């Protein structure tokens, strides 16, 4: 065991993450476990390294984040 708690989120969870503009709030849309694209951004997710698709409360835009980048609120 590495000592790092496994972070897992469910669709509908309220979360925060840091951006260049500061902390942003949003909602988890889904857990992504395969490669995909959001607009022109490539999301390199896999079953062993999932990412979460989140929707910003402010802009409504979607983005992908690694579990360690998100904090449940």
UniProtKB/TrEMBL annotation:
Residue span(s) of domain Hypervirulence associated protein TUDOR: 12-70
Entry's transmembrane regions: none
Biased composition (Polar residues): 15-24
Top-rank lineage group of the source organism: Bacteria
InterPro entries: Hva1_TUDOR
Compositionally skewed regions (Basic and acidic residues) per UniProt: 55-73
Protein name: DUF2945 domain-containing protein
Naturally occurring in which organism (per UniProt): Acidisoma silvae
